Write the structure tokens for this entry.
Amino acid sequence: MDMTGAQWRKSTKSGSNGGACVEVADNLPGVVMVRDTKDRDGGTLAFAPAAWRTFVAGVTERA
């Protein structure tokens, strides 16, 4: 998958101490990409946008 145009961002609630954070790129058509900030060259997960929205809604309900 071509991720050259991915615009990565992390949560504003993430600390600045280099902790355990993830970055999300949701600007690519038809896919939401997720990666670990500590290992940006490691694996990247790909989600369908609807699946990502469902995940975020579930996490938000529990927060």
